[in-house]
Amino acid sequence: MIEDGTEVLARVVRGGVVESVHRGHLVVLGPDGAVRLRRGDPDVTFFPRSALKPVQAVAMLRAGLDLDGELLALACASHSGEPDHLAGVRRILDGAGLEASDLQNTPALPLDADAASAWQAAGNGPSSLTQNCSGKHSAMLATCVAAGWDRAGYRDPAHPLQQAVRAAVAELTGDGDPAHTTVDGCGAPLFSCTVAGLARAFARIATAAPGTPEHRVATAVRAHPWWVGGTGRFATGLIGAVPGLVAKDGAEGVFAAALPDGGAVAVKIEDGSARPVPPVVTAALGVGGLDEIGRVPVLGHGEPVGEVEPVR
């Protein structure tokens, strides 16, 4: 989806020499919604991948999903597949009278290396339960149960659940009806938006009035960052370090975040690499004390000899 018009967002510096660069699109919105910084073309249409999950969760709550706290955060997650993540997915399914066999997301091993090793050591292979989107898929199934919708076809873009998601994407991004629909890596429908639209959606979630589905999502993400990602994950660390932040990563170099005052950031790295995301996002947020969280070292013989540096 990414078109021409990208700019250099980060430089990879080794031994004081720029070794390579990462190009992309970046937007920073102020609390008033005005564009404070733009790199590349924030109005370009792209696929936000898993960064869309908080918006999908808003749609599910509107349709009757009854989750809050850590399980709602898990519905927004690209989790690492650690034991408590898997137990949480089972809790969502149990609460709706469902089983792991009802999940239709693409089987995969846990993202976390230790969790994957333990899962395989127990004689297990790739599973829909351990795939990082199982929180979202279990919540989608639970939404269907709550709304009285067919469960078997919940991944069909024409299904009432996915039409509700589509409407939420159009509303919260402010982009209007999504221009493109495809299938995400997990098997769920994926709707396009603009980079600026993704930032607007996060700002609206982060500033929503108490009691609204948007506020429920924001509260869950803020209070339970580990459930959104996992041990050692950038999104988890960033949410935990910045009071009131709502943030989510997505595949192919996507990230979005919003502060409680409505300031927001969205980025898409053109080459799909996650490597430059931490320094680019932490620099764009403009919040102090994030140097370590955003640092991505360049190694030589296992030792730091440079860094991935954001272009400010």
Summed up, what is this model?
With 312 residues, the protein is α+β, with helices and mostly antiparallel strands. The protein has helices spanning 53-62, 69-75, 83-95, 113-121, 134-147, 160-173, 195-206, 213-223, 225-228, 234-241, 277-285, 291-294; strands spanning 7-14, 17-29, 35-39, 45-46, 181-183, 189-191, 193-194, 246-250, 254-258, 264-269, 297-300, 303-310.
Keywords:
globular, single chain, Asparaginase, eight-stranded antiparallel beta sheet, Asparaginase_II, 37% helix, two-stranded antiparallel ribbon, 312 residues, 12 helices, 12 strands, alpha+beta
What is this structure's SSE topology?
Layout: E1 7-14, E2 17-29, E3 35-39, E4 45-46, H1 53-62, H2 69-75, H3 83-95, H4 113-121, H5 134-147, H6 160-173, E5 181-183, E6 189-191, E7 193-194, H7 195-206, H8 213-223, H9 225-228, H10 234-241, E8 246-250, E9 254-258, E10 264-269, H11 277-285, H12 291-294, E11 297-300, E12 303-310
Antiparallel strand pairs: 1-2, 1-12, 2-3, 2-10, 4-7, 5-6, 8-9, 9-10, 11-12
